[in-house]
């Protein structure tokens, strides 16, 4: 029996090669995309799941409700860990993690003859306590990490770094000098950190050493630093909520809150760190669950669209099978037997498509991995989950695509199937086919609309005014605490004609470096219940970045905090409406440590990405903390200017590595994640539309064939070719419009949701919908016309003869 | 073998009611060769389809092998059909994707006949219809007469008690038509009951008895055999 089904299937598929190809290609495209998306989603879901204690590891965050909305921060006050260890035994093991975004490393040579080798790292150098190894299960390849980092000034290198710094040598026992500040002894080499962790590291350094590297290190309960975090494991059996309450209770002694101030330490599960963009992580990349759902949905959409093609083509094709089905029924075939036969046929097509997609996936994975900067693995044979996914896909697609056609075909009445074929096939799901085409158009339009909106938001990110200049500015990181060495060379720096301005500062206006502190304004006795963002910069900052002053003047040159600038948001927060009124007021920040007068008010500028609201800002001078030299260049001659900068830099810091980044590039990196998502959206929308077109093409070809006679008669009666094409187009134009009525509101709703994540966002214009509708119309009608033209230009006499 | 009492068939489409059969009383004995004649649209095919269990009557009684089956379900009819009935159509209705051999084999597959017996019976049927040399051809590669012989082979391979033929020679030229009629005739001699619809008086000559239908009613019967006997 199955042999017979198989033979018929193979021969039928071969005979209707065009139909088979359309189906296989469409399905293969859809399946490939869903397979790729599956791999991406699975990778994203795997972050930090490999730790044995993954389900009871938490990070301590700080949640604040302040006058300008909720503030979420993953940084913790420095003394907190000691408190944890002293009075909260249920939170063990616990470790500080301090993340330094790279630095300079000097490999000290064994003898004094060789010059030391110098390297610069851009990414995660992680300072950890020995408990790190109790808490997490990173691969150590047998190295006892706890032992290796128990002493001060020790470092574990990853294999990559070891190979880079010590090619052909044994690194163990050698000494690295970091940032020209501390000497670190290499105590071992461990494998590279896995890709799927939010605690990435190029090397692990003992935590105590971070105190010398970290310019912000202090012992105050009042300040936090986002690169200084605490992770712990909750003891089995302990109650999370109670533990959290207890921590807040105990900590209250050290961090008294003013009345009305709402601040709370909260525990965030490690497994959520990758998905909660409010707190961020050391990897610098989160992906929301919503985005993952969107990806899954797109994957399903693509398979759906391809399956719809299948249903459409198969039911249309039913005509050709009517005689066979009729005869089989006459011979006593039962309905289940016929259904089995047709499902088997669908299964074969699906299997072919599936095999093709496996090959395609293999080919497309490397470029996709590159694009997303992920290491995605695809090895079917060693991957039970993937195999399962494939099997599920095979069964689901076969069933989804094959069930309805099988039902229709096996339901034919034998006599009518044998007698009047056309009538039977016409009846075979014409209205369903129209419904499915509408569904397909709907999916395509939703994708087009979403793509346009996502694209526009990205463009907005790129072009929105940030409140400062970002063009032709380079940021040069300085060795910590040594800004002064270069500051004295400022005349020399600015001697080059292509250099328009220079400013030393803790960071450029928009940066990932964030320092928050509490403050006291004017004669208020209590600290206000919001913290301010400190921007430490020299007196040339506003000029360099072209940030306008609203009132007062720029502060004077100074090495310590003497005078302050505040921004508009700050004024709003303290209830001051007139900028002029703030000038001359007193300001006390950092507990009682620093005190001075406000001398000016700056216009608001963006401190981080456009995702976040502008915070209240206090600006002042503080030479010791400056980490960047910012240089405004002439548009031309930048090359020469950079060489000049390097020379001056090296004369100030002979032992450090010169490095620079263009400001607009680093700002673009804020949106890398979104850019990639936008790109993915675009690619997948195009593929969805392509698949839809394939199906449409096949369907129209079929309809045209069916109406050959009608077309012939019309032509004999004098219809023009154009009117014949119009005949077919009218039908589909209608379907596109119906689909638009559905797609418009759906995509509007979802995109509004998505845009809500951004504080600074575009508004959805009606033209987006218009564009999507027109675009679908054009695509659909072009597809239809290609086929319809063939019918229109056919010889009517021939057409009439064939029937 | 079969008997109909006041058999009726009405079609209702778009609120127009067509009476295809009105009170048809017919009795067919085992071994008979019956021809049904009448003008186009008088209900011949309808009657044959009901007898062939492809359709249910709208009224009256229908006994087949002593069972009243006018109310049988599709599944029950399908089972009776594959065991006892063979069909030959004017337009052959061979499955294009199957070879001659596979077409003839198909009924046996649905009857779940074992592979060896199947082979033997298919070969035998092909021999009998003198088409064995074309066993690996596809229907499109055969002439009309050859196709009809394949169709007859397929109809008889399951050794049905009753063979139903709806204008079996309608699409054939007279030479090929004669050939087909002779095959049917010899099948009848070997014991198969045959009911055949035809427009051709010369084809009807092969039958023992001719029933004339007009507007869904039997208007006359002439029994040749009786005259001879
Ligand atoms: N499925 C159907 N729906 C509606 N009416 C039908 C249907 N099948 C047949 N009829 C009508 O029933 C009557 C008998 O049709 P039938 O096919 O039995 O005629 P026939 O004698 O076989 O004609 P022909 O010699 O042309 O084959 C006709 O009037 C026909 O229009
Ligand atoms: Mg007829």
Task: Give the tags.
heterodimer, A: 803 residues, 3 domains, 6-stranded mixed barrel, 26 helices, 22 strands, elongated, B: 229 residues, alpha/beta, Rossmann fold, globular, binds adenosine-5'-triphosphate, binds magnesium ion
Short description:
Chain B: It comes from Rufibacter immobilis. With 803 residues, chain A is of the alpha+beta class.
How does the SSE layout of this entry go?
The complex is a heterodimer of chains A (803) and B (229).
Chain A: H1 2-15, H2 17-45, E1 57-66, E2 69-73, H3 80-87, E3 94-107, E4 117-128, H4 132-135, H5 145-148, E5 154-158, H6 159-165, E6 175-178, E7 182-190, E8 203-206, H7 210-213, E9 228-233, H8 240-252, E10 262-269, H9 289-330, H10 335-372, H11 384-410, H12 414-419, H13 421-427, H14 430-463, E11 473-477, H15 483-487, H16 490-493, E12 499-505, E13 516-517, E14 519-521, E15 532-536, H17 541-545, E16 549-552, E17 563-567, H18 568-574, H19 579-582, E18 586-589, E19 594-602, E20 617-620, E21 628-633, H20 638-652, E22 661-662, H21 663-668, H22 672-706, H23 708-716, H24 721-755, H25 766-792, H26 796-802
Parallel strand pairs in A: 4-8, 5-7, 15-20, 17-19
Antiparallel strand pairs in A: 1-2, 1-9, 1-10, 3-4, 3-6, 3-9, 5-8, 6-7, 11-21, 11-22, 12-21, 13-15, 14-18, 16-19, 17-20, 18-19
Chain B: E1 2-13, E2 16-28, E3 33-37, H1 44-51, E4 59-64, E5 67-68, H2 74-84, E6 85-89, H3 100-110, H4 115-128, H5 144-156, E7 162-166, H6 174-189, E8 193-197, H7 201-204, E9 209-214, E10 217-223, H8 224-228
Helix pairs in contact in B: 3-4, 3-5, 4-5, 5-6
Residues 44-45, 166 of chain B line the site of magnesium ion.
């Amino acid at each position: 029996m199955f042999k017979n089904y198989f033979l018929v299937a193979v021969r039928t598929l071969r005979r209707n090669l065009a139909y088979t190809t359309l189906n296989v290609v469409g399905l293969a495209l859809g399946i490939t995309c869903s397979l790729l998306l599956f791999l991406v989603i699975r990778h994203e879901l795997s972050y930090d799941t490999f730790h044995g204690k993954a389900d009871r590891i938490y990070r301590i965050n700080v949640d604040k409700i302040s006058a300008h909305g909720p503030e979420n921060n993953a940084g913790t006050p420095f003394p907190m860990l000691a408190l944890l260890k002293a009075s909260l035994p249920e939170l063990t093991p616990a470790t500080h993690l301090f993340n330094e975004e790279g630095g300079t490393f000097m490999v000290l040579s064994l003898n004094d003859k060789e010059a030391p080798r110098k390297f610069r790292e851009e990414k995660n150098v992680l300072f950890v306590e020995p408990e790190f190894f109790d808490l997490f299960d990173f691969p150590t390849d047998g190295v006892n990490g706890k032992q290796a980092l128990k002493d001060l000034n020790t470092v574990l290198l990853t294999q990559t770094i070891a190979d880079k710094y010590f090619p052909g040598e044994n690194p163990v026992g050698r000494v690295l000098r970091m940032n020209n500040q501390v000497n670190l002894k290499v105590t071992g080499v461990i494998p590279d950190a896995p890709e799927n962790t939010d605690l990435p590291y190029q090397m692990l350094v003992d935590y105590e050493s971070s105190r010398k590297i970290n310019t912000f290190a202090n012992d105050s309960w009042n300040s936090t630093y986002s690169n200084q975090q605490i992770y712990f494991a909750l003891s089995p059996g302990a109650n999370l909520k109670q533990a959290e309450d207890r921590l807040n209770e105990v900590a209250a002694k050290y961090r008294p809150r003013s009345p009305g101030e709402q601040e709370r330490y909260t525990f965030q599960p490690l497994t959520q760190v990758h998905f909660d963009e409010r707190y961020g992580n050391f990897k610098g990349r989160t992906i929301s669950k919503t985005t993952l759902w969107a990806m899954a949905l797109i994957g399903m959409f693509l398979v759906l669209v391809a399956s719809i093609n299948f249903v459409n083509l198969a039911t249309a094709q039913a005509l050709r099978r009517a005689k066979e089905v009729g005869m089989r029924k006459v011979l006593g075939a039962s309905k289940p037997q016929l259904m089995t036969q047709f499902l088997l046929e669908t299964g074969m097509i699906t299997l072919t498509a599936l095999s093709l997609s496996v090959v395609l996936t293999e080919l497309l994975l490397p470029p996709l991995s590159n694009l997303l900067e992920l290491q995605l693995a695809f090895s079917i044979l060693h991957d039970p989950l993937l195999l399962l996914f494939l099997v599920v896909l095979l069964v689901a697609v076969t069933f989804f695509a094959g069930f309805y056609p099988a039902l229709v075909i096996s339901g034919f009445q034998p006599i009518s199937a044998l007698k009047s074929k056309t009538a039977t096939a016409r009846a075979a799901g014409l209205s369903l086919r129209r419904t499915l085409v509408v569904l397909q158009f709907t999916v395509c339009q939703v994708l087009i609309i979403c793509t346009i909106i996502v694209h526009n938001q990205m463009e907005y990110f790129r072009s929105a005014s940030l409140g400062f200049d970002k063009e032709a500015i380079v940021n040069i990181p300085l060795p910590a605490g040594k800004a002064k060495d270069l500051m004295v060379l400022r005349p020399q720096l600015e001697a080059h004609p292509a250099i328009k301005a220079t400013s030393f500062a803790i960071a450029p206006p928009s940066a990932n470096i964030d320092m928050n502190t509490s403050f006291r304004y004017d004669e208020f006795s209590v600290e206000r219940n919001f913290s301010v963002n400190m921007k430490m910069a020299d007196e040339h900052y506003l000029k360099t970045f072209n940030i306008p002053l609203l009132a007062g003047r720029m502060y004077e040159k100074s090495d310590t905090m003497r005078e302050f600038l505040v921004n508009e948001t700050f004024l709003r927060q303290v209830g001051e409406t007139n900028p002029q009124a703030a000038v001359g007021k007193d300001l006390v920040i950092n507990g009682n440590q620093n005190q001075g007068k406000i001398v000016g008010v700056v216009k608001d500028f963006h401190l981080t990405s456009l995702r976040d609201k502008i915070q209240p800002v206090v600006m002042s001078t503080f030479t010791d903390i400056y980490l960047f030299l910012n240089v405004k260049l002439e548009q031309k001659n930048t090359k020469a200017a950079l060489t000049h900068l390097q020379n001056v830099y090296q004369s100030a810091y002979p032992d450090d590595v010169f490095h620079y980044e263009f400001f607009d590039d680093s700002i673009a990196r804020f949106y890398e994640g979104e850019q990639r998502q936008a790109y993915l959206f675009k690619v997948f929308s195009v593929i969805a539309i392509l698949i839809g077109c394939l199906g449409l093409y096949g369907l129209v070809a079929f309809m045209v064939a069916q109406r050959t006679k009608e077309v012939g008669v019309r032509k004999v009666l004098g219809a023009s070719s154009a009117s014949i094409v119009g005949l077919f187009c009218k039908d589909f134009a209608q379907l596109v419009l119906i689909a638009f009525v559905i797609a418009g509101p759906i995509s509007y709703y979802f995109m509004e949701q998505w845009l809500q994540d951004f504080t600074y966002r575009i508004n959805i214009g009606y033209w987006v919908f218009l564009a999507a509708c027109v675009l679908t119309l054009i695509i659909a009608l072009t597809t239809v016309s290609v086929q319809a033209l063939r019918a229109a230009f056919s010889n009517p006499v021939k057409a009439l003869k064939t029937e | 073998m079969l008997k109909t009492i006041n058999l009726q068939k009405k079609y209702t489409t778009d609120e127009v009611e067509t009476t295809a059969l009105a009170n048809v009383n017919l009795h067919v004995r085992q071994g008979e060769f019956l021809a049904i004649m009448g003008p186009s649209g008088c209900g011949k095919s309808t009657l044959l389809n009901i007898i062939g269990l492809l359709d249910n009557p709208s009224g009256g009684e229908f006994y087949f092998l002593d069972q009243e089956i006018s109310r049988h379900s599709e599944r029950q009819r399908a089972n009776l059909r594959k065991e006892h009935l063979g069909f030959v159509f004017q337009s052959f209705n061979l499955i294009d994707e199957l070879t001659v051999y596979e077409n003839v084999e198909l009924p046996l597959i649905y009857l779940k006949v074992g592979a060896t017996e199947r082979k033997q019976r298919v070969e035998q049927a092909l021999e009998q219809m003198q088409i064995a040399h074309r066993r690996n051809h596809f229907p499109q590669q055969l002439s009309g007469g050859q196709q009809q012989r394949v169709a007859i082979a397929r109809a008889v391979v399951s050794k049905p008690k009753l063979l139903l033929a709806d204008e079996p020679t309608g699409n054939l030229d007279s030479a090929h038509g004669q050939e087909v009629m002779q095959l049917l005739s010899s099948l009848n001699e070997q014991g198969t009951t045959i009911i055949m619809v035809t427009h051709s008086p010369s084809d009807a000559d092969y039958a023992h008895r001719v029933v004339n239908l007009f507007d869904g009613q039997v208007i006359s019967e002439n029994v040749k055999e009786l005259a001879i006997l």
